[in-house]
Fold:
Amino acid sequence: MGVFKFASCDGCQLQLLSCEDELLSIADAIDIVHFLEASSHVEPGPYDIALVEGSITTNVDRNRILEVRKHSKYLVTIGACATAGGIQALKNWGDRSDYLRAVYARPEYIETLSTSTAIADHVKVDFELRGCPINRLQLIDVILSLLADRAPRTPRHSVCLDCKRRGTVCIAVAQDAVCLGPITQAGCGAICPAYQRGCYGCFGPAAQPNCDSLADWYLAGRATPVELVPLLRNFNANAPAFRECGDRIDPFLDSGGTT
Amino acid sequence: MEEPCLIEKSELNRLIERLIREGFLVLGPRVEDSAILYCEIQSMRDLPRGYRDTQEPGKYRVAESNGENYFEFNLGPHSWKQFLFPPKQSVSSCKKTDNGWEFTTNVDSPPKFAFLGVRACELAAIEVQDRVFLEGPFVDPVYQARRESTFIIAVNCTVAASTCFCTSMGTGPKCKSAFDLALTELDDGFVVEVGTTRGRSMISDLNIRKIDREHASDSQLLQQRACDQITKRMDTSGIRNLLLENLDHPHWDDVAKRCLSCTNCTMVCPTCFCSSVTEVSNLSGDQIERERQWDSCFNVDFSYTASGTVRDDVRSRYRQWLTHKLASWHDQFDSSGCVGCGRCITWCPVGIDLTAEVAAIRNTPFSNRTLPVIQPVSKAACAFPKDFKP
Amino acid sequence: MNAKPDLTKARRSSEPWHTFPVTIRRVCAEAPNVMTYDFEFDNHSDAQQYAFSPGQFNMLYVPGAGEAAISIAGRTNEGRFLKHTIRTVGVVTQAIAKGGVGMSLGLRGPFGTSWPVDFFSHQLKRDVIVVAGGIGLAPLRSLVLFLIQHREKVGSVRLLIGARSPEDVVYESELHEWSENGVEIHVTVDRPSLNWRGQVGVVTLLLGRIAIPRPQSTLVMTCGPEVMMRYVAKSAMDRKIPTENVWLTLERNMNCAIGLCGHCQLGPKFICKDGPVFRYDYVRDLLRVQHF
Structure:
């Protein structure tokens, strides 16, 4: 197995590191030959499993992911960056040169694409594991499935189902919270609503989400577009369902859609 | 049934104490997390005294009022389903041995429940789930183990929420059966009706008074007040055929535009019984629990088959839920699957109201019908062989 | 004839989650991605109390991967052995294919309704037409073997097989034996190979061509893609076979197999307990509704 980092915060790789106890118990079955976060010792491919964290934001990375794909049997993307472009995909709505000037003293040294995009926009991905960060138990499940040569299964239902299973009172209904739970994929364990905080969509859109209906309901009295758009444009800003809904209600967007 | 009697309010404490003493886990309403939930209670102090709730589609609020009553509110997001049909429950487990897998059917020993504050619609819901889990060809051992020992103290509603429509479904607001004891809360006591001999013996050491005419009429008036406060209606006449005749009605597309398919309605519904068994494995994969979890017909993967997903859009999933609940449930279990509790209306994050959707279908006859009416088929008409040996 | 079986009573008291340990003893390739497996009960006592009727299904359980509902393809009296023909398509069936001979797994069953085998009698000697599409022959195999075994209770037995291509015809090696035992077999394929000498076209065409001298006492039993079965039923009707003589078997997502989980509903029907075998006229209208 190889672990590869692209534009990201390393948080998902940390989740893998925090699996060390679990990984020990399957250590016989798995050999991690490329994991810079954990060890500077690397071995060349091919890899049975490539775990890819991060999004594509530079030309160099665009070529590097092609190489990774070429040498990997299963390519699994992990986290919101790799599966939807991450928080850095906010740049897709801005002007690259403005950002470069605002952040860097010498912007001319920076070479970057104008967009941050998911790995699947560049190469074939065998499985996408969502989350910001990913859920470590789901990661282990994916690895175990691949070891058994099975397609991994992670639920695609909404966060609401998990809230109800754990008995959390719906804060959207009981407290008028602006919560993305109904359109967000489960996987986090429905943590935020259990602490009286609206879901902010870390695991990206659930299967067949009806974002427009929820947005319209919130806009009819509970939130303004200025509040709602940033919620949709968060860690999974460039996930198509969130992106399209955010763009539809964005009062500052002149023409529909971005690149 | 014997004559109702009267107890002082504080006598309820003694009833709770007795239940606890006899080994029951007493569950009742309690204010928690901005809602009235069903939780373990130790005494009347835990009850939501003076609390009122207000409900409308997609909205629920609980607030303290200057009232003194213990049960002057309606339904919260919880239903008793969570105790009889737990959201997560291991049904079997297996262990890898040198000689292959060893399978064990899990026999759990749940606590004896005493439910305090079960409303009429909720009694009806428990009866609906009894038919599902206990009266089919297969009995659900998880439900059976819990249901058999459960002691039920019902409470007659004296107020109603705007989302209530038990009167349309013929399930309330008065508790008529399926309880051990039923209470009606007056200003100066509880009127107690006894439903079973078990209920009778449980109040044997309470200070019971005969009910006088004034108490009887107060009790009547309060129950009538609840009735009068119910404004929501669902016309159930011919509802089975109405829905099954309109499976291609354009209104399903209209609901699909609003429905989030988020599963909330099915989770709060006290009769919805869908579930999935999932594998919970240890890391080495040699010890596995099979855990049954609440699931929902609103999930895309719920109808997955090798040849494709059957209900692959929101339209077909909402239609499945509503037609099952209100129409085909009659074919399957000889009753409606809806008890008129209104939870699905309150707890829908976008306030979809099933009574309005049914009315919309009823009020806009659809003439381009291409589908036949689904006729009921007698349950006996199945093809089991006579010489079958299980 | 349609009385509810004693089975229900017996089942009520038993454990619906009870799982028999079984082991794969033999694997035989049938078609691309399709294999027939012989399972043996690990415990003799399990084998003794287990009995099924043609058309019923089992839940095959691979610990860690989950369960899959698979129809039983074998003879009703194979003792310790059970035969299943399985297409490798999902997580569970992949695991079974990978496991192969010697794999230990679990089995719950049998579940569901069976083909109307109690309709066969010495007096009536009904004619039977069995129509299979592709791997749809699997749940019909146990029926064909039952008919061979009870040959004296039926009139003519015809088996019409439709497959995508010649290599998709399952149980090919057995067809000769079946025909020697009084089963008239016709095979048609959609895409013939170069050396294919049989018929080409959809299976319903065969139903249109064969002689049906006694339509009123002819039974049609079919399994295949839903759309195929609907055309089979239509062709049967065109040949004056009454709708109540047509039987089919349906597929839906099955999770519990005991009518308690809700997955397999088709309108008022639970496929797992009201089916999978249905009299056609009981489900005809349901099958016309898209995404139902």
